[in-house]
């Protein structure tokens, strides 16, 4: 079986171009990247080829990142429409897998897009009462201080200062202007907002994550009728790759 990737674009409802890559064969599975990530700087470098052994795997650049277009103003509903367009482009039905803020987006699409037949969400991020740093990040980006914008975001999500100081910011800087997008998406989403999801739902968490991340996973599992919850071996906000592949395949 050939897994040579195919590349293309889809036009979303508002006219934004969404760039995608397809590999493998079988039922369609769309992977939804977390904050700042896209096909050129992906969280799914090993995951996508592994899943393509048994599925048609679609990876894509979320709007504003990589080769996808953008709109003048950001609204989470437009990202849901992007996923609806991708599902329609690739046969009209698909399962979704998302990680972190990408998991939050995948869950919203599972609620609102009729063609979504199942969703796996690894540590979805929900609204909290932390400080709103979106304007600060926008100002830093305008000033050309994209590295500082990335560091500000990392502090906002609870990464300790000593760790923030060691994280290289360069790879993510081209997408720094989209950091407020993810903060808007997750800041508007609470577990109760997902109660209308009707497709099979698996919510995953890492055994090595903090109480907040693991608690959000539990909240989503409790809010979505019939949802299942599983904790996989891993580190903070990351799980064992083989265990993750197996969990997604079983869903």
Question: Can you describe this structure?
Answer:
The model has no long low-confidence stretch (mean pLDDT 95). The relative contact order is 0.14. This protein is of the alpha/beta class and 251 residues long. The strands form 2 sheets. An 8-stranded mixed sheet has the order 1-2-4-3-5-6-7-8, sandwiched between helices. Strands 9-10 form a two-stranded antiparallel sheet. The longest helix has 14 residues. The protein starts with 5 loop residues before the first strand and ends with a helix. It has 9 helices and 10 strands. β5, α3 and β6 form a beta-alpha-beta unit.
Question: Topology of this structure?
Answer:
Blueprint: E1 6-11, E2 17-24, E3 28-32, H1 47-51, E4 56-60, H2 76-89, E5 94-99, H3 101-112, E6 116-122, H4 134-142, H5 146-156, H6 161-164, H7 179-187, E7 201-206, H8 211-223, E8 228-232, E9 234-235, E10 238-239, H9 241-250
Parallel strand pairs: 3-4, 3-5, 5-6, 6-7, 7-8
Antiparallel strand pairs: 1-2, 2-4, 9-10
